Amino acid sequence: MDNLALLDLLEEQGRLERQQWVQLISTYTPEDSEAAAVKARAVAQSRFGRDIFFRGIVEISNYCRNDCYYCGIRRGNRKVARYRLSKEEILECCAEGYAAGFRTFVLQGGEDVHFTDQVMIDIVSAISGTYPECAITLSLGERSRESYQALYDAGARRYLLRHETADAAHYGLLHPAELSWQHRMDCLRELKDIGYQTGCGMMVGAPFQTADHLASDMMFMAEFKPQMIGTGPFLPHQDTPFRDQPAGSVELTLFLLSLCRLMLPDVLLPATTALGTARGNGRLMGVLHGANVIMPNLSPLSQRRKYMLYDNKPREERSAEDSIAARDADLHTIGYRLRQGRGDYQGRN
Ligand code: SAH
User: Does the residue 232 lie in any domain?
Assistant: First the structure.
């Protein structure tokens, strides 16, 4: 079957066989990618119109107990100036975001042992008490089921935990032995089970990644049915073991965004910061390939340069309000616009 027929098949049945994924991913042409983008845009527009949801990311800490080989804030990187935000600082970020129109706050950080359940429950309750109409998303890595449940009970409703790779052996090449692929996958299932709108995702072009690994990612997601998918190109960081590894391909990232949209029509799919870092207009290209979410930074300006997961991450020196206006203006150039609101998942789980 040729690639265009595979795209039709994917749109029709929401899944493909392993060999079909491998074929698409390893033999796609620019014309195939454009055809996928046209279809993916049509699917996204049928669900969301030309509206793009925006979420504010608050990077609450760059302390991390883990030593992932790709990540700039890994424990082993001695060059990082570490910081963590206080509850008051986090609430200030939310206040600035709320005034600018944000209705989803994403608290992301390294796995910082300071943020115990008690500390996080206090923060999440304060945000949900102050902004009852806003959604709280957490992206704090692997925690116990009890912890996830307690944070849900405190008011968090979404959780982003990229699976990074659906291939256990590949996971082992990206992480030290003390981190377990099985545990990460178990966390994802627990999150979904508790009732979180759950996001997974992989880095495109991560070191040692093959088309077969990406096929596994797509097959995992077809089965897991995440409500959100966060995916962007791998970008090297100079103070990590992967400093000399090549960056992932923007073209392949865009193609995969389209495939995700065709596979899971209702999925909330951000055009990620990594994509915008790899290419100046990357986020707009992401929208044109089926993405429907952007996630501007709400972290305090003074700390932004310290949350460097990869080299050249833009440290936009803009207030929440200015960055919203700028993103909206950018989107207008391609016929889209920002849409205020929580932007919850609307599909059937
Ligand atoms: N500690 C949290 C948040 C991690 S940061 C967690 O474990 O989930 C969010 C995502 O950034 C990671 O899941 C990873 O996919 C991505 N990331 C980290 N380093 C990266 C790099 N060098 N290039 C591209 N993406 C990276």
Answer: yes
DSSP labels for 76-122? T-TT----B--HHHHHHHHHHHHHHT--EEEEEE---TTS-HHHHHH
Pocket of ligand 1 (CB under 6 A): 70-71, 108, 110-111, 139, 141, 161-162, 164, 203, 232, 234-235, 237, 274, 309-310
Query: Which residues are within 8 A (CB) of 263 and not within 5 positions of it... i.e. 6 or more apart?
Result: 10, 14, 15, 218, 221, 222
Domain that holds residue 64: 3-339
Model confidence band, residue 315 (pLDDT cutoffs 50, 70, 90): confident
Q: Give the integer Cα–Cα distance in Å for 212 and 164.
A: 14
User: What pLDDT digit, counting tens, does each position of 174-211 carry?
Assistant: 999 999 999 999 999 999 999 999 999 999 999 999 99
CATH assignment of the domain containing 248: 3.20.20.70
- What is this structure's pTM? 0.98
C-alpha–C-alpha distance, residues 238 and 245, integer Å: 10
Strand (E) positions, the chain?
51-54, 56-61, 104-109, 135-139, 158-160, 197-200, 203-204, 228-229, 232-233, 293-294, 337-339
How many domains does the structure of the chain reveal? Answer: 1
Rounded distance, CA 107 to CA 174, Å?
24
133 in helix, strand or coil?
Answer: coil
Does some domain include residue 284? yes
Specify the residue with its C-alpha closest to ligand 1, atom 11: 309
- Using CA of residue 120, residue 125, residue 126, residue 127, what is the dihedral sign? positive
